[in-house]
């Protein structure tokens, strides 16, 4: 059944620093998803505390914010049938040590022993999260994405 969705993808600061923006875009596009918006994000604490509010209080929350504040990210809206689940599959599981080879995290990241895992990308995990996160990073778009 057709279920055209949008998802919020971030190339995190480690991905930008390592020159992997093009590689992430290539994997999204060659899978057949459409990129409908893309911008460089100059980080603020408020922006990422809101984005990662579900993790407040966890031991990796402060290190996660510090990491996200360590440089620019690239925010992308990818669109397509079941793209939310599809991009999470392309990204691979959170821990890059065990992320499947063939995935972005499995191929391009490793655990460097830091307090927060640096794993190149973020992808929304549900329709509700995608709507919430798109509104955070693309406040200029209306609810239909225009
Ligand atoms: P996700 O990015 O795969 O959705 P989440 O559980 O939402 O994973 O966590 C957000 C981010 O926080 C992860 O991508 C990773 O960078 C970091 N993180 C999550 N869990 C841990 C942990 O147990 N230790 C260190 N960092 C973590
Ligand atoms: Mg998550």
If strands are numbered along the chain, what order do they take across the biggest sheet? 2-3-1-4
Strand content: 15-25%
Instruction: Report helical residue fraction.
Output: 25-40%
Largest sheet: 4 strands, antiparallel
Task: Write up this protein.
This protein is α+β, with helices and mostly antiparallel strands and about 150 residues long. It has a 4-stranded antiparallel β-sheet, with helices on both faces. The two termini are about 25 Å apart. It has helices spanning about 15, 20-30, 45-50, 60-70, 85-90, 105-110, 125-135; strands at about 5-10, 35-40, 75-80, 120-125. It has one domain (about 5-140): Nucleoside diphosphate kinase-like domain (Alpha-Beta Plaits, 2-Layer Sandwich).
Produce a short descriptive summary:
This protein has 146 residues and is an alpha+beta fold. It has seven helices and four strands, in the order βααβααβααβα.
């Amino acid at each position: 059944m057709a279920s055209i969705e949008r998802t919020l993808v971030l190339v995190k600061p480690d991905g930008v620093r390592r020159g992997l923006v093009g590689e992430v875009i290539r994997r999204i596009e060659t899978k057949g998803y459409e990129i409908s918006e893309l911008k460089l994000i100059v980080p603020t604490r408020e922006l990422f505390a809101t984005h990662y509010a579900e993790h407040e209080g966890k031991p990796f929350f402060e290190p996660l914010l510090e990491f996200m504040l360590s440089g620019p990210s690239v925010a992308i809206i990818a669109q397509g049938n079941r793209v939310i689940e599809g991009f999470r599959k392309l990204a691979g599981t959170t821990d890059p040590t065990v992320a499947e080879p063939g995935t972005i995290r499995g191929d391009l990241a490793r655990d460097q022993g830091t307090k927060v895992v640096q794993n190149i990308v973020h992808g929304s995990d549900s329709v509700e999260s995608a709507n919430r996160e798109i509104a955070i990073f693309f406040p200029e778009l209306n609810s239909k994405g225009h």
